[in-house]
Write a structure and sequence with these properties.
It comes from Virgisporangium aliadipatigenens. One of its GO terms (molecular function) is cholest-4-en-3-one 26-monooxygenase activity. Belongs to the cytochrome P450 family. Pfam families: p450. The structure is a single chain. By secondary structure, the protein is α+β, with helices and mostly antiparallel strands. The chain has one domain: Cytochrome p450 (Orthogonal Bundle). The strands form four sheets. The chain has a five-stranded mixed sheet. It has a two-stranded antiparallel ribbon with strand order 5-6. A hairpin with an 8-residue loop joins strand 9 and strand 10. Helix 6 packs across helix 16, helix 10 crosses helix 11 and helix 10 packs across helix 12. It binds protoporphyrin IX containing FE (HEM).
Length: about 425
């Protein structure tokens, strides 16, 4: 085991300024073997044996593409401690499953997220981005960019897809903030046991919302995704109400937070890199797709996913045993010097840009990646065209070891 003077399992590590954390990950990448960390003590799950921190691009890629050995379904992928039963009821959707259950669920929902289906949403996404931008303009400078703009687009789009009325937006936003609020006292509690209860409560509330809608769609189908899910029939099987509920929670949470943070971080990156902004605005249509990929790389909205070894296995020279846990640190893989030249430079023309912001190729690669790209592109392009002088001020970051998020950011124009 390598001795290193910081601990990724310590909550205090995730409160350090960004550049100090980056320095720590740089040190980890300079080692020739992954460091093993003890698991943090949490009140809602038994303490596990610990985990290896995979910080290299090559390790994250190799583990992601070998799901038979690196499983998501053994205690879950979204948390280092194994998810207890009551959590799994609400948060145990496809992201925490292996085949064949994973493949079955993914087949049911894939159609709604293909590039072709998502492309049909372009007009709608643009109209919403335009409305938000007009309201921001009318409100004048000095507000919070997250609540005035960035949070609203993904929330509306995902709620529309699922068939949730506008009256539920506030409810959905509040509970998804709680679920991905990490250690942040603004959304949870300083006490982990209390945060656990708040998480369960948020899951229960959202589950109830889905069940109400599902029952209505069962009787009277519409053209929304909830109707498609309620009536989906794959190999003669229907989704159970519990599967529907936890999938719905996954979509709401995954679809909201990550995209919101990318939009906010995008405006900030363009503000502090005026050369890149000038380049982008010189040819928005051509350069926007590359800029969006670079925003997701630099931001790495999802910090990690976890896998558990189903058998003894050697990966890139390191021997793992059955039952070992590995944590795939996307934030570190995305600035791995072995893959990215000048990795801390924000370069909208970076090519190739094999970032792992949406995960690496494998069965769990982000289902919503095309939708997220569309939303980030439309929101930033509409803003830059309509309010060319808009700038993002100093962000207030979320305190979390799972999501690189911005809670608030002032804007001026
Ligand atoms: C910038 C925005 C986003 C980022 C950075 C992001 C990132 C990720 C990552 C890292 C994973 C895990 C990949 C793995 O385990 O290999 C993932 C999975 C997933 N994402 Fe996203 N995501 C984003 C937006 C969205 C949106 C908009 C939706 C849906 C509307 C969505 C739905 C999902 C789902 C359902 C999964 C689980 C897929 C599976 O297990 O098969 N994501 N995402």
């Amino acid at each position: 085991m390598t001795v290193i003077d910081f601990d990724l399992s310590d909550r205090a590590f995730w409160a350090l300024p960004h550049d100090q954390r980056e320095r720590a990950f740089r040190q980890l990448r300079a080692l020739d073997a992954p460091v093993f960390y003890e698991e943090p003590e949490v009140p809602f799950a038994p303490k596990g044996p610990g985990y290896y921190a995979l910080v290299h691009h090559a390790d994250v890629v190799a583990a992601s593409r070998n799901p038979k050995v690196f499983a998501s379904g053994r205690g879950g992928a979204i948390s280092v401690p194994d998810l207890p039963e009551d959590f799994a009821e609400y948060f145990g959707s496809m992201i925490n499953m292996d085949d064949p259950r994973h493949a079955r669920l993914r087949r049911i929902v894939n159609r709604a997220f293909t590039p072709a289906t998502v492309a049909q949403l372009t007009g709608n996404v643009r109209t919403v981005a335009e409305q938000i931008t007009e309201e921001l303009l009318a409100a004048g400078p000095g507000g919070d960019f997250v609540t005035t703009a960035a949070a609203r687009l993904p929330l509306k789009i995902i709620c529309d897809l699922m068939g949730l009325p506008e009256s539920e937006y506030g409810f959905v936003l509040e509970h998804s903030n709680t679920i991905l609020g990490g250690f942040d006292p603004e959304y949870g509690s300083a006490d982990l046991a209390e945060t656990g209860m708040m998480l369960l409560n948020a899951g229960m509330q959202l589950q109830q919302l889905v069940q109400d809608i599902a029952v209505r769609r069962e009787r009277a189908p519409t053209d929304d995704l909830t109707s498609a899910l309620v009536h989906a029939n794959v190999d003669g099987e229907r989704l159970t109400l519990q599967e529907l509920g936890s999938f719905f929670i996954l979509l709401l949470v995954a679809g909201n937070e990550t995209t919101r943070h990318s939009i906010t971080a995008g405006l900030r990156l363009l503000t502090v890199n005026p050369d890149q902004r000038a380049l982008l605005t010189s040819d928005l249509d051509t350069l926007a797709p590359g800029a969006v990929e670079e925003i997701v790389r630099v931001t790495s909205p999802v910090i990690f996913m976890r896998r558990k070894l189903t058998q003894d296995h050697e990966l890139n020279g390191q021997q793992y045993r059955e039952g070992d846990k590995v944590v795939l640190f996307y934030n570190s893989a995305n600035v791995d010097e072995a893959v990215f030249t000048d990795p801390y430079r924000f370069d909208i023309t970076r090519s190739p840009n094999p970032h792992l912001g949406f995960g690496a190729a494998g069965p769990h690669f982000c289902l919503g990646a095309h939708l997220a790209r569309l939303e980030i592109t439309e929101m930033l392009c509409v803003l830059l065209r309509r309010i060319p002088t808009i700038e993002g001020g100093e962000p207030v970051y979320l305190y979390s070891n799972f999501i690189n998020g911005v809670k608030h950011m002032p804007y001026t124009f």
